[in-house]
Structures are given as C-alpha cells and as structure tokens.
Design a protein that fits this description.
Blueprint: H1 6-27, E1 36-38, H2 44-57, E2 67-69, H3 70-77, H4 83-86, E3 101-107, E4 112-119, E5 124-132, H5 137-141, H6 147-166, E6 178-184, H7 189-202, E7 210-211, H8 219-233, H9 236-240, E8 253-254
Parallel strand pairs: 1-2, 3-6, 6-7
Antiparallel strand pairs: 3-4, 4-5, 5-8
Helix pairs in contact: 1-2, 3-8
Length: about 260
Amino acid sequence: MDNENPEAEEILATTLKDIRQKADDELQHPVDLTSISIPQHFNDSIRGAISKPALNLEPGIVRPWQVRQYYNAVRLAYRLNSCEAFGLNSTTCDVEDGPHLIFFVDCNDTYLELYIADVTRFIFTKVAKETLRNPGARRFVASNADIKTDWAKIRYELQGFVDKHFGARQGYQDIEDLRAIILSGDAPPTAFENIRTIVVDLLPGQVDKIRDTLDPLYVGAVGAAQWARIQIQDTKILKDISTDTMISDTYAHDEL
C-alpha cells in the first residue's frame, strides 16, 4: 500500500521545525527529540507523514515507533507498563502474559470516546472502541432543562459499553484483568467531575483504579516525555531493534 503523502510531509516538517525552534528558545539550549505523541485516529498515511520528516530531521528519532499514538502515550504517563504499576505481585506476575486491560475514557468538547486496550511493557493492542459524537463535554456543563436527560443518556451509553466488554456483573466488584481506568481529553474540569461521578457510579468496585491525577489535557504530552525517559533509562531499546517497519493500524497496536 502506498502511504506517501508529500503535501502532509512538507507541512509537518515545517511544523516540526517550528516546534523545535520554540522548544530550543524556551529552554535556551538545543533539545534532543526522541518521542512524539500523535492523535489516536491518525491513519497509516498521516503517521508515515509524521515519521518520515521526524526520521530525516531529528537525530534522536531513529525508529518509526518512537512516534506513539495517543492512548499508548497516555498509559505511559501513569507508567502502566509493569506488574508493579498494574498492582500485581512482581514475583508471580509476567508483564508479557496478560491480558492487562486499560479502560480509557476520553472526554472532549464535541465527543466522548471509550477505548479498551490490552498492554504489556511495549505492546499496545486495541480491544474495543466506541466514539460517541453527540455527548461531548458541552452536555456535561450545560445549564438547561435537558441536563438530567443528557446525563441519563451518557450513563446508559457507558453502561452498555462496560456490560458488553467486561460482562454485566453485580456491582463490578472484581473485573478480572482490568488494571486501570484513565480519564483524558480537552474537556473542562467540570465535565471531568461529572464523568468521574458516572464512572464511580457504574464501577464502584474499581474506584482505586481510576487515574486522573494528571491534567487530562496534557496527559498525552506527559506520556510522550515518559516514553523518552524510558529510552534513556534502557538504551538497549533502540539498539536491539532491527526492524524499521511501521505497524499498521489494521493490527491495532504499536510495538517494539
């Protein structure tokens, strides 16, 4: 499949140069870019258009998979890539032997996305996704007579998704293999307070697994920084990989 996209590559190359210049100016020294986080919905063509100029322009970008899709970066913001982070006993747990499920609730101004992934230390595999276009953040902060109805609709959609993919269980006290629930997105704080209330109401036995201490707006950037840190801490990651193959979204995972 031909994923060449020269116009996008040119635009993104210019954007990358501008971002680097601003970062250099702000920090007052050259930065070594080793990690890029991109929106989850970017297809292979756009991912390639980002990876190609990054590989050409940035000495620290030497593998296409240093460009990480959003949710894979988000989970790294909470360091969810080890048995300890999953809350499991490291002496009996094998991080590569899952499933280790993470439930992402991505609340934005115009849509709400529900996403489940199975993760290991490096591998990130999509299990399920549902994007709700109507119930964006505006419905959670609206001051109108329909707010209770809108809340009921959102709760109904969330419960349907949870029932379908985790199995309907009384109180959801023990959802096997669920390691974390992450809240992310560009919605205002009030919307996240309301979303959290719904999640707690639906999953009362999983409250301790909710991850929302980081600003949901910047959690992807924090995850990209953590991915860069991992590469510094374990230099074998880049040296041991012999393939430059871009992993297609058809297979729904990023891997080393």
